[in-house]
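Q: How would the structure tokens look for this protein?
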Amino acid sequence: MQDGVYLKQYAAALAAVASRAPNPSATRMFARHAADAVAVERELHATLLPELGISAADAAAAEPAPANLAYTSYLLATIRGGSYAEGIGAVLPCYWIYWEVGMELLRRGSPDPRYQRWISTYGSEEFGAVVRDAIAQAEATGTSLSPARRTLVRRHFRTTSRYEWMFWDMGYRRESWPV
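A: Here is the predicted structure in token form.
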């Protein structure tokens, strides 16, 4: 359920990056990625949640866990209050880490078809092409940045990389609000 909560906010973040893009091709790319994030969430969760005994109503009513709320709040604040380059720096770790993890897990496989569907999605060459496009956009944008701006973008990248770890850890620990 937390992944569904996250993906809705991540799609909003990608749409916000698209709205700040300096050229039509980057706008189209990030807007398409935002739409795809929603589609992937629906496709993966439409079958997975019922298999786990979770109703659509429960999923729709899910409140973000603390790490999820912190992560998505940071993403949206960075994108809305920062530059286009900062936005790319903030959203890029989700792309890249999911692909790296997906490729490693694809190599290993899973006997559980539920996990294998996720692995097959994020370890696929199709998703890899999406990630490479986002990385290329980050690299193209980074070439024109001053050293100070590049440092700021890297800081956002590092912070959201840490939030990615916290998100996975949150799921592992089944984090919830203490009060």
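Residues 2-173 form a domain with the Heme Oxygenase; Chain A fold (CATH 1.20.910.10).

The CA atoms of residues 17 and 39 lie 18 Å apart.

Upvote if useful.
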